[in-house]
Amino acid sequence: MGKSKAVRRLYNLCFTFFFWLSSPYYFLKLWRRGDWKAGFGQRFGSYNTRLKHALTNRRVLWFHAVSVGEVNICTQLISAIEPYVPNLKIVISTTTTTGMGILNDKLPSYIEKIYYPIDFKRCVRRAFGVIHPSAVVLVEAEIWPNFLWHARDRGTPVFLVNARLSERSFNGYKRFGVVFRRIFASLAGVGVQDEADAEKMRLLGCRPDKVHVVGNMKFDAVPLGEKRHIDAPMMLRSLGVDERAVVLVGGSTHAGEEEVLADIYKRLKQRFPDLFLVLVPRHFERGREVGRVLTGKGVNFVYRSEVTSNTKHPPGAVECLLVNSTGELRYFYEVADIIFVGKSLRGKGGQNPIEPGMAAKPIVFGPHMQNFKTVAADFVNNNGAIQVRDESELEEALKRLISNPERRAEMGKMAVEVVRKNRGSVERTVRMIVERLEKK
To answer: Which of 57, 197, 327, 379 is the most buried (most CB within 10 A)?
Structure first.
């Protein structure tokens, strides 16, 4: 017990120091993403009277989803688990304002939406004191020691679902095993995407009987054939884009990739005059920065925020749509002919290739897909995606796909087949959680 207390004390000293050291960046990021005042106190474990009354004398199941990707998974998981836990009140927390926007849009009002408390001991204690969860479900590897220590002290079972660990995260947790090993051992259930992640979790201290290979929940995160919330085809027509044009979408791009795509686009445009570019930066607040890049490259573009029902541009006047909004990427994937997945060429780790696969479109990504290693390999091995090593190979791959509509159609067909065969992870995860709750 003495060693455990010393570890906690050291963690709290380090966390406090590094939080205040990084606080200018933290608060600047909140401010840049907008609407930062709403729910600000919740980030420090301070919740209003209405929430307290709503949770009084209720058994609560608390879900946590960091941001947009995890939120999309969590909404599916909640829909699937609700029929099994009719007597539990559901609370879901998120970390970002964009995540909160999607929660408010997708989930009914009777599900409480809050911001996750910063991992100060007092903030965590206050949050638990209001919510009193019967169980907690964390989506992906969101490991905050004070939160998990407090849950363990209270005897609250914690589930980690859709868990995946990069080599960097795995080595970090392993290096600081004195802090994390007992935390991992306390988890009531861990749903991982593949056997490689299962082995990592066991090596970090998870009990073998608590680790379950259930697949990747992101394959279930968006229902196939979901109703559109925006009319992307009409939006392109208002920009003068011909229905026969080849639309290249750069999705979830990171710094440097928009510049690469703009250069490639200008060169390919000379050979394929009907080519149209849609850029969707991973962080919408980079819109102005990306706009300056496009202007410097001589690409005539329009911001998504400037497109209204009255927008009308003559054919050829606009070469690119720059999407500076959130939650709309999948609708532009639907109108794409070719999709480039960002954070894979100039960034590290890659972004989710499953949504492009759901749209039944050919996928291209760069060499850095570490965060989706198994998924990316599945698409490539089944001819649903092309992985390139650099900018030159990217241009060559795009050139071949633009000039070969039959190849595009075949790749799209294979991509959606990969998605179909991997679905079902949500239901397997629900069974893992419900079986444990029934024993409590």
So the answer is: 379
